[in-house]
Specification:
This protein is mostly helical. The chain has one domain. Helices cover about 80% and strands about 0% of the residues. It is built from 9 helices and no strands. The radius of gyration is 20 Å and the shape is elongated. The relative contact order is 0.11.
């Protein structure tokens, strides 16, 4: 009990972070549920199985993309909570909104995997892109409530939080544009979204801890 109290005193957001880790873990696990093994009654030869596996590639692509998005978001979320020295109700609710965009992601992921290479790809890509834009709003709210509630200490940390808010605003603008364009060129936008997250993955891997 004493060690638990020490953890809480050292990190007032430990319970919040533990809850968030659970949400991220569940969301990232749910992604794989939409990739199902081909039914045996439709498979007569090995060639049939190879063809069935080929038809699953769009779903695998959507899974890998969303897995990367949730992983990158979790890493960034963990880094942000390390800089927050207190908590507040507005911050907790802003964090909840960010989690909402993560929990909902398996649905547009399944939609994207099912329709990306069809004539009906536009609604799937529009929804997928808009969810990424909503995540940007989540980051903006998280930074805003942290700054307004004075939950961060030190000039360097405050500047980092302001930069995060500015970057999130830029992300929101980009995904708003992508969402609009997805009505006409969904495949191009799907490729663009993939490229954006590959960039963030490479950028995140190369960040050096100070």
């Amino acid at each position: 009990m004493e060690s638990y109290r020490n953890i809480i005193m050292h990190n007032p957001n430990s319970r919040l972070e533990a809850f968030c880790d659970g949400v991220f873990a569940i969301a990232i696990t749910l992604l794989i549920l939409d990739i199902r093994i081909p039914a045996m009654d439709r498979i007569s030869t090995s060639q049939d199985l190879w063809i069935a596996l080929k038809h699953m590639l769009p779903s695998v692509f959507a899974f890998l993309l969303s897995f990367g998005i949730i992983l990158i978001t979790w890493v960034n979320h963990h880094a942000i909570l390390k800089t927050v020295t207190a908590s507040s109700h507005p911050f907790a609710y802003a964090n909840g909104f960010l989690l909402l965009t993560i929990v909902f992601l398996p649905f547009p992921t399944a939609l994207l995997g099912e329709y990306i290479f069809t004539d009906h790809a536009a609604p799937a890509v529009v929804l997928y892109s808009s969810m990424n834009g909503l995540q940007g709003i989540g980051w903006i709210l998280l930074a805003q409530t942290a700054l307004k509630g004075k939950l961060v200490r030190g000039e360097k940390t405050i500047l980092q939080m302001r930069k995060m808010k500015k970057d999130a605003l830029f992300v929101l603008v980009i995904y708003t544009i992508c969402t609009i364009l997805a009505f006409w060129v969904p495949l191009v936008i799907a490729i663009t979204i993939t490229a954006i997250w590959i960039f963030w993955l490479i950028y995140g891997i190369n960040i050096k801890e100070e």
